[in-house]
Specification:
39% of the residues lie in helices and 19% in strands. It is of the alpha+beta class.
Length: 315
């Protein structure tokens, strides 16, 4: 993948709102993976003509629209195979927008070299996790992010379930969030933007659609977001997402990054399999206590929120 341009600089150019419009297109794709996604429909979501949209999307994202849609569909398929016990390949194929299980298998083999029935999801996740840990921690501290074995809960995590209504979220999207300080910079920019409009007291969120144990780190995206009221105007490179009503499995975090990693491990490997729930097609949220990084870059205080659905619901 080609390097992603500096989107902040592009967005700052007079008269352009390309970043916000491309984000709209990405969000449209991510929320409609099970449906046909012809180029002209995705272009309409961004208010571009298909011809210009194709060129602009590739310039900003580094992939063609077709390649992006195919990739995120296959990555979602891996996520479903990881967390939906007993799911059939046909169910996965249809949930990810493939016409049939054979169409899914062909695309999967083209991307990963083997059919989905022969793919070792656990080994793939283990390799991606090692890459993530290497990006987050110096070598002498990587043991802190060792995977928490299933069934163990040394931190005494307790889940509470909560229903939340639909929400409107202003956000800045960070490409390659595991490299450099792009997330911290985006948080500072959005805090300044919100303070200037009297919105900084809302609920701050951090979330990413990409599972770094599935998706290569240089293809991940992270959104720094803020819940805002309906009447709040949003312009420039700040984008807006509408989150649907959802059920959240929540637990509180007050500590370093390794505590949050253990919480995620416990949620997915211990709590989820026996909970009667499965992950919803939504990102896992970090709901900050106060503003993002209000307690520094080594100590985090937030509520970890995993959107869930009843395990028996269709995917």
């Amino acid at each position: 993948m080609a390097d992603v341009p500096n989107l902040a600089n592009i967005a700052a150019a007079p008269g352009t709102d390309y970043v916000e419009r491309i984000n709209r297109a990405i969000d449209h794709v991510l929320r409609h993976l099970a449906e046909p996604l012809p180029l002209d429909e995705v272009a309409r979501a961004a208010h571009f003509s298909p011809y210009h949209f194709h060129r602009i999307f590739k310039a900003l994202v580094g992939e063609t629209v077709h390649d992006f849609v195919k990739r995120v569909r296959l990555e979602h398929a891996l996520h479903l195979l990881s967390h939906r016990e007993g799911v059939s390949l046909t169910e996965v194929a249809l949930a990810c927008g493939f016409a049939s299980s054979s169409d899914f298998s062909r695309s999967f083999r083209s991307q990963f070299g083997v059919p989905p029935s022969a793919f070792d999801v656990l080994t793939h996740r283990r390799m991606r996790r090692e890459q993530m840990v290497g990006a987050l921690m110096p070598e002498d501290q990587r043991h802190r992010l060792a995977r928490l074995p299933p069934g163990q809960n040394p931190d005494g995590f307790v889940v509470r379930l909560r229903q939340v209504p639909a929400r409107r979220v202003a956000y800045l999207r960070v490409f390659k969030p595991y490299a450099g300080d792009g997330v911290a910079q985006a948080a500072r920019r959005l805090v300044e933007w919100a303070a200037a409009r009297g919105l900084a007291g809302g609920q701050w969120l951090g979330y990413q659609w990409d599972d770094p144990e599935i998706v290569p780190l240089d293809l991940c995206r992270y959104d720094v977001g803020l819940e805002i009221p309906e009447g709040a105007a949003v312009v420039g490179d700040v984008s807006v997402a509408r989150l649907p009503p959802m059920t959240l499995a929540e637990l509180d975090i007050a500590g370093p990054a390794d505590l949050e990693m253990r919480a995620l491990d416990w949620l997915f490997t211990t709590w989820l399999p026996t909970s009667g729930y499965a992950p919803d097609h939504q990102p896992c949220f970090e709901a900050w206590v106060g503003e993002p990084f209000a307690h520094g870059y080594e100590h985090f205080e937030l509520c970890l929120q995993l959107p869930v659905v009843a395990a028996g619901e269709p995917i």
